[in-house]
Write a structure and sequence with these properties.
The protein is 36% helix and 13% strand. It has 3 domains: 309 residues, Glycosidases (TIM Barrel), CATH 3.20.20.80; 88 residues, no CATH class; 28 residues. Strand 9 and strand 10 form a beta hairpin. It is α/β, with parallel strands linked by helices. An 8-stranded parallel beta barrel has the order 1-2-3-4-5-8-11-12. Strands 6-7 form a two-stranded antiparallel ribbon. The chain has a two-stranded antiparallel ribbon with strand order 9-10. The radius of gyration is 26 Å and the shape is globular. The protein is built from 13 helices and 14 strands. Bound molecules: 2-acetamido-2-deoxy-beta-D-glucopyranose (6 copies). One 2-acetamido-2-deoxy-beta-D-glucopyranose binds next to loops. It is an enzyme of class 3 (hydrolase).
Length: 494
């Protein structure tokens, strides 16, 4: 009886299943993102995910604006046919060339911008000429060349006929302005960059381009242990800051209004402001945790959804979150947290709950689809055995950490509480994965061994690297190279 029933019903279920599966994949289910919200997509990773996978992930999450740091053709091209709006960047090391000769700017526009517009496909909206070129650590190297480079790029865009459609700006760090009293109304531009900023602001005002600024409440906390923690977030504070007629409940508002005051004093109070970078890291520092990152992003997105803006700049505001993905090849000069800014891990898996619609719901972003992993293999320290020469351990560890990524092992980080052996295993595995799991990369003078059981321990996650898009390309080129090699041999011996 039961069997008969099963036989009768299963074709029907099959048809149903079939119908469900054949629903066309449309992204209508994609959430409505807070207007104005974009993401930064940096690719300083040892194993970058291929651009088409990322573009699909952005669509799945309803992200409609993206900022990148150069004009890599594969990346820019991956946006063709999507309606995602793009801000491309010019790295600082190209500023001198562009500033020197307007013809270099014409070449740059032709080779890096116009190329993608002929197809009519990529929606390039901004060019950021330089990335934080006025950072104090650059010792003024770019102060005199950023503005001439911007002028030449604008000139080249005008000539190419895109001068109105594509806006020229430059991404400045928030330390180009300061306030002696910490009150926004005492805001002014830094004296050593004042003249350069004044020229730039006049240019932006004239061309209706935005002042692009990177604001990091995390750094307020990182750089100053006495900083009131709640002021870095958006959930309210016991003691707001009062300034003139305004009341400040978070450092973001105070920081942005410091800029508005500085702009006002320089004679351009109404220049548009766009947030070039804002975000929170998840590792590499005691304040960089997934729960703090979740608190920050949920609060920021909820605030953006209200469209209240800041006391001096009420209304909608564009902001690019920093960042989309972790980047394990970034310099850690500013701190170990530098490699952990991603909302998503190195492999496109989300790290914490964040609701891009600004409703504050506890839901994970949609992960990247189609990422290919290397094998289920890890490299760890061998279990203790008298034959192991442990005097090789310190040297092996520094080697592994210099070439791999040990930023999760530092104080306050996700692997800080591992035993000595656990820490060694973590370092060995990092180097092994970055080396594409090559057997030779898991030796360390006989101290290391490959295992197939995941050594992940609580918060201390032992990654398996992905097969990077770069490697796929290299493999392809190698094959092509071999092929031409073989044909050459063939030709020679015939
Ligand atoms: C952009 O254009 C310049 C000048 O033609 C070229 O040298 C450079 O390689 C291009 N940059 C990228 C990232 O494609
Ligand atoms: C800036 O100056 C300091 C001190 O003179 C030096 O150590 C550093 O390398 C310089 N940085 C750059 C980017 O030139
Ligand atoms: C920038 O220009 C100013 C004024 O012309 C000059 O005093 C300064 O030395 C220049 N700075 C650099 C780094 O070239
Ligand atoms: C361990 O290695 C060190 C350095 O090569 C060497 O001097 C020492 O003799 C070795 N110890 C053993 C027990 O093999
Ligand atoms: C590591 O141990 C300290 C002290 O017990 C604790 O406060 C911290 O939360 C631990 N960190 C992790 C990542 O488990
Ligand atoms: C695993 O983590 C716990 C605490 O988080 C720690 O006590 C233990 O030593 C770790 N195991 C290893 C092998 O590091």
């Amino acid at each position: 009886m039961a069997l008969a029933k099963f036989l009768l019903t299963w074709p029907f279920s099959l048809i149903l299943l079939f119908m469900i599966h054949c629903q066309p994949h449309h992204v209508e289910g994609a959430p409505e993102t807070v207007p104005g919200i974009g993401v930064n997509w940096g690719v300083l990773a040892t194993h970058p995910i291929s651009p088409p996978i990322i573009v699909n992930m952005l669509k799945d999450n309803g992200i409609k604006k993206v900022k990148i740091f150069d004009t890599d053709s594969w990346i820019v091209g991956a946006f063709s046919g999507s309606d995602i709006e793009l801000m491309v960047g010019i790295p600082n090391d190209q500023l001198r060339k562009l500033a020197r000769d307007v013809n270099n700017a014409h070449d740059w526009v032709k080779n890096n911008v116009t190329k993608h517009l002929y197809k009519g496909a990529v929606n390039i909206r901004y060019v950021s000429v330089g990335n934080e070129p006025f950072l104090k650590s650059y010792n003024g190297s770019f102060v005199n060349i950023t503005f001439p480079a911007m002028q030449n790029v604008q000139n080249a865009l005008d000539k190419a006929g895109f001068g109105d459609r594509i806006k020229v700006t430059t991404a400045l760090n928030a330390d180009v302005y300061q306030s002696a009293t910490d009150k926004p109304s005492d805001g002014e531009f830094r004296p050593d960059v004042y003249d350069a900023v004044k020229q730039i602001v006049e240019f932006l005002d004239e061309h209706n381009s935005p002042f692009l600024v990177n604001i990091y409440p995390f750094l307020s906390l990182y750089q100053n242990d006495g900083f009131p923690q709640d002021f870095a977030f958006f959930d309210g504070v016991e003691n707001p800051v009062f300034d003139k007629n305004a009341e400040y409940h978070n450092v973001f508002d105070a920081n942005l209004d410091t800029l508005v005051w500085a702009l006002t004093k320089i004679g351009h109070p109404n220049v548009d402001i766009v947030i070039g970078e804002i975000g929170w890291p998840t590792d590499g520092n005691k304040h960089g945790t997934p729960s703090n990152a979740k608190r920050f992003y949920q609060g920021f997105l909820k605030k953006m959804a209200t469209r209240n803006g800041t006391p001096l700049r009420p209304g909608l505001m564009d902001a690019y979150l920093f960042s989309l993905l972790d980047e394990d090849d970034k310099s850690i000069a500013p701190g170990n947290f530098e490699r952990h800014w991603g909302i998503f891990r190195y492999d496109g898996k989300p790290k914490f709950e964040v609701d891009f619609s600004g409703n504050g719901e506890n839901k994970m972003p949609v992960e990247a689809k189609g990422v290919v992993y290397q094998e289920n293999k890890w490299c760890v320290l061998k279990p203790f055995d008298k034959s192991l020469n442990m005097s090789y351990l310190p040297g092996s560890l520094s080697y592994a950490c210099a070439l791999g990524d040990c930023t999760s092992l530092g104080a306050g980080s996700s692997c800080a509480n591992q035993s000595q052996d656990g820490s060694a295993s973590y370092a060995f595995n990092s180097y092994f994965q970055i080396s594409d799991q090559s057997v030779e990369a898991c030796d360390f003078k006989g101290l290391a061994t490959i295992v197939t059981d995941d050594p992940t321990n609580g918060t201390c996650f032992f990654p398996i690297q992905i097969v990077s898009s770069g490697n796929m390309l290299r493999a392809l080129l190698l094959k092509l190279g071999l092929f031409t090699g073989f044909s050459l041999i063939f030709l020679i011996f015939m």
